[in-house]
């Protein structure tokens, strides 16, 4: 069994879906999940003792891209469940890895959002200004949304944290309405909360 490949295939089923939120303060938040976001969302970039990941993280070496990593996951070559779990850094992503699935990505859409996230309050390197979160499994699932240099929003990170570190002291608003459109533009989910 290769849970990493299963997680990728499940994620791929919602790639290019457009997520649209109306927040309690009237702000609108929209983004799409991209296939190339998968390695970072699941935390593979933190497993720096795996040579292909070290190359992926090297900004001076652009030969290893997210697409290349995904091709290795699909072929079950170099990036497999056992390679991930044998990394000495796996414990740092184990909660994220175990909680990363389609259901958790979808249900994080139905609760609250941190707006204007201030990373300096906790010494974080996140670029996100929005964090969608949900209390789940003795902790919190977080989906962090940032603005790209071209002005579009993207999913920067997904993680599970046992504490409310990324929420406490931040500005939190309720999500009033959720609309998720599939890759063809058809309404997949709509909910007024």
Biggest β-sheet, characterized?
8 strands, antiparallel
| Envelope shape | globular
**SSE run:** HEEHHHHHHEEEEEE
SS field, number of helical segments: 7
User: How many strands?
Assistant: 8
N→C terminal distance: 38 Å
Strand content: 25-35%
Radius of gyration, CA atoms, in whole angstroms: 17 Å
Mean pLDDT across every amino acid position:
92
Structural class: alpha+beta
Short recap of the structure:
This protein is of the alpha+beta class and 193 residues long. It contains seven helices and eight strands, in the order H-E-E-H-H-H-H-H-H-E-E-E-E-E-E.
Question: Overview of this structure, please?
Answer:
A hairpin with a 5-residue loop joins strand 5 and strand 6. The protein contains seven helices and eight strands, in the order H-E-E-H-H-H-H-H-H-E-E-E-E-E-E. The protein is α+β, with helices and mostly antiparallel strands and 193 residues long. It is globular and about 45 Å long.
Reconstruct the topology from this structure.
Elements: H1 3-12, E1 18-23, E2 28-32, H2 38-42, H3 51-57, H4 66-75, H5 81-85, H6 90-99, H7 102-107, E3 112-115, E4 130-135, E5 140-147, E6 153-161, E7 171-181, E8 187-192
Antiparallel strand pairs: 1-2, 1-7, 3-4, 3-7, 4-5, 5-6, 7-8
Summary keywords:
eight-stranded antiparallel β-sheet; alpha+beta; 7 helices
